[in-house]
Write a structure and sequence with these properties.
Blueprint lengths: L2 H6 L3 H11 L3 H16 L6 E5 L5 H8 L3 E6 L2 H4 L6 E3 L12 E6 L11 H11 E10 L21 H9 L4 E9 L4 H4 L4 H15 L8 E8 L1
Parallel strand pairs: 1-2, 1-4, 2-3, 4-5
Antiparallel strand pairs: 5-7, 6-7
Helix pairs in contact: 3-9
């Protein structure tokens, strides 16, 4: 994980204010869109699901309410204190779980915090503990996120779709790779908008970005395992 991110996410005040600083006003619309996208890719009912880098448990709690059996893992104890889902503190590159013990794994808002050399071992470790599929998202380098990327306190890396597809080709045991584009307007801009304006922009955003992967700031990946 990027060093700035390691430090930033472990700060107690950051963890306490994480939800309120991101998911009020326009962030409410962002939260709703993210959760709808995840539910379109995951059928949680009756499934054992791992949420890697669960943070405050926002997505884990959603899937739990929809009938999934959730386990979260995060390196930050301060973030986990905010979660209501069963979680453990641990390293995403060394998951403390047995092989094939989860049906599905998810990881939201995390891969951009990894160094490039950590992507392969991360995917392989998730694959080791997962029977069916892995859902995660990445942030595209040719997007409006570049407007504020430099100012982020936690740092991040933006990975192109072509780079990731090449990496996936080199990994054994991946049966299928599917990608789904979303958010012409990136997360950070939604979060500073009034709710009514964000909702109007979201409706336009969805129509504009559909089928135009190159415009999207966020790509959701679905890796199916053999």
């Amino acid at each position: 994980m990027l060093k700035k991110g390691q430090k930033w996410y472990k700060e107690g005040e950051v963890a306490k204010k994480y939800e309120d600083s991101r998911f009020t006003e326009g962030g409410i619309i962002l939260d709703k869109e993210e959760k709808e996208t995840l539910l379109s890719l995951v059928e949680p009912e009756g499934k054992d699901i791992l949420d890697v880098a669960t943070g405050t448990g926002r997505f884990a709690e959603l899937l739990s309410r929809e009938g999934g059996h959730l386990t979260g893992i995060d390196a930050s104890r301060e973030m986990l204190v905010q979660s209501e889902v069963e979680s453990v503190q641990g390293d995403a590159l060394k998951l403390p779980f047995k092989d094939n013990c989860f049906d599905i794994s998810i990881s939201m808002r995390f891969l951009h915090l990894l160094e490039p050399e950590d992507i392969d071992p991360f995917i392989q470790e998730v694959q080791r503990v997962t029977k069916d599929k892995f859902i995660f998202e990445t942030l595209h380098p040719l997007s409006l996120r570049l407007l504020y990327q430099w100012a982020l306190p936690q740092d991040s890396s933006l990975y192109s779709n072509s780079l990731l597809k090449e990496k996936f080709k080199g990994l054994d045991g991946i049966k299928k790779v599917r990608s789904h584009e979303n958010f012409l307007i990136p997360y950070g801009i939604y979060q500073i908008l009034p709710e009514d304006i964000a909702e109007s922009i979201s409706q336009i955003d969805e129509r504009v970005v559909e089928g135009r992967e190159w415009l999207a700031s966020t790509i959701y990946w679905e890796l199916s395992f053999r």
